Amino acid sequence: MIAVGGEPFYYLEFGDIVLYFSPVTTTLFVLALLFTLFVLASRPERQVDIAFGSDAYLAKVITPGELHFRKFMATACGLASMGAMVTGDVFDFTLFASLVGITNIGIVAAVKNRHVQNAAYQYGLVSLSATVPLFSGAAMVAATTGTLSLIELAKGTYPAVPLAVKSFLVLGIIGEGMAPFYAAKAEMFRAPGAPYVIMCSLSSLLIFLRVVEIAMTM
Question: What's the whole-model pTM score?
Fold first, then answer.
């Protein structure tokens, strides 16, 4: 297999599902793993709002119920990101990417803040719309090449994937939270509870780097 991410040095097979570890995919996987472990081991900060021009301030405390839910969603986001980094199947990658979008919404869904929930709703609409080109791109890969395996596509024995098909995959990932649609997610960062909120940004960045590697490999 000749891939942009380097020659894979390990394959992990689960029936038809094949995970592969190359220099690039392993690096991205380790980043997602380390931050997921950091999320599991850390407690969220206490966000403080300061009134401009006075000494007044308001500390926001996360309730135990909200804490557990958001930690669970952040952990699920990390696991989905790890799966997306090493999957060897285009369709599995789209599933993991969609799950990342869902968990991003879940991370802030429990926050009782009108601005945050409104931003999460808007981001949800963008993310939902992005699944159309995302899954359409995966379907067109199968239609034009006869396979969804990145391992087989990288060998060069199958027909080349058209640039338009690759564009559909990239556009779908951009809609999951990258610029310019990232603006729909920006207001979500008013939610208290780092590092949970930071997971939204990190997972989107990792997914984007992975789809670029996939597009250049096919």
Answer: 0.84
Residue 182 is given by DSSP the state T
Residue 117: inside a domain, yes or no?
Answer: yes
Better pLDDT: 124 or 139: 139
Instruction: Rounding to the nearest 10 degrees, give the CA dihedral for residues 31, 1, 145, 130.
Output: 10
Write down how long the chain is: 218
Is the residue at 39 inside a domain?
yes
Give the Cα-Cα-Cα angle 97, 99, 104 (nearest 5 degrees).
100
- Pick the closest to residue 18 from 99, 92, 97 (CA basis): 92
CA angle, residues 24, 89, 143, in degrees to nearest 5: 130
Q: 3-class DSSP state for residue 204? A: helix
The CA-CA-CA angle for residues 137, 143, 146, to 5°, reads 115
Contact 212, 172 (CB under 8 A): no
Q: Which of 214, 135, 130, 212 is nearest to 176 (CA)?
A: 130
Domain count, the chain: 1
Full domain range(s) for residue 54: 10-217
- The Cα–Cα gap between 75 and 83 comes to 12
| In-domain check, residue 2 | no
Residue 35: CB atoms within 10 A of its CB come to: 21
- Convert the pLDDT of each residue in 200-213 to its tens digit: 888 888 998 899 88
The verdict on residue 4 lying in a domain is no
